[in-house]
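Please fill in the sequence for the structure shown.

STRUCTURE ENCODING:
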């Protein structure tokens, strides 16, 4: 056994407090716009894409099914954050673009989240935030998706 019972108990304690805290502070402003965090990530990805982006591109980027992404996109369509443009050569392919409302929402949410993130940087320092992000990157590549490197 590699980890001690104390290490596991510490992990469980921090998981229950730190990650819930992070989730609450990120999710709270997003929920005001009738979105989940996943829907916001999709909205932001569409908004920052330099080329037309398709539903299947987003599904591949997020490592989930097209139907899972489709459910999130239906919410974004319902609240007029995104719209679709059919490919003239293949009408089944539809590019996703942000509406003006979607652009404004993405900009506002990024601002709100940046304010919270800046507080973390002010309290913990840039070096510790970089170390945390490096840990998350390692965890993602070694544990969550080791075959994706």
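FILLED IN BY: designer on duty
SEQUENCE:
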């Amino acid at each position: 056994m590699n980890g001690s019972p104390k290490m596991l108990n510490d992990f469980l304690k921090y998981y229950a407090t730190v990650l819930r805290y992070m989730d609450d502070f990120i999710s709270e402003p997003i929920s005001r716009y009738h979105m989940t965090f996943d829907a916001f990530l999709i909205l932001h990805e569409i908004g920052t894409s330099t080329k037309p982006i398709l539903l299947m591109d987003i599904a591949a980027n997020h490592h989930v099914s097209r139907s899972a992404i489709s459910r999130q996109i239906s919410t974004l369509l319902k609240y007029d954050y995104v719209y679709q443009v059919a490919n003239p050569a293949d009408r089944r392919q539809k590019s996703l673009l942000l509406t003006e409302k979607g652009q404004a929402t993405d900009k506002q949410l990024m601002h709100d989240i940046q304010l919270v993130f800046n507080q973390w940087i002010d309290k913990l320092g840039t070096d510790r935030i970089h170390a945390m992000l490096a840990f998350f990157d390692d965890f993602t590549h070694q544990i969550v998706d080791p075959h994706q490197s």
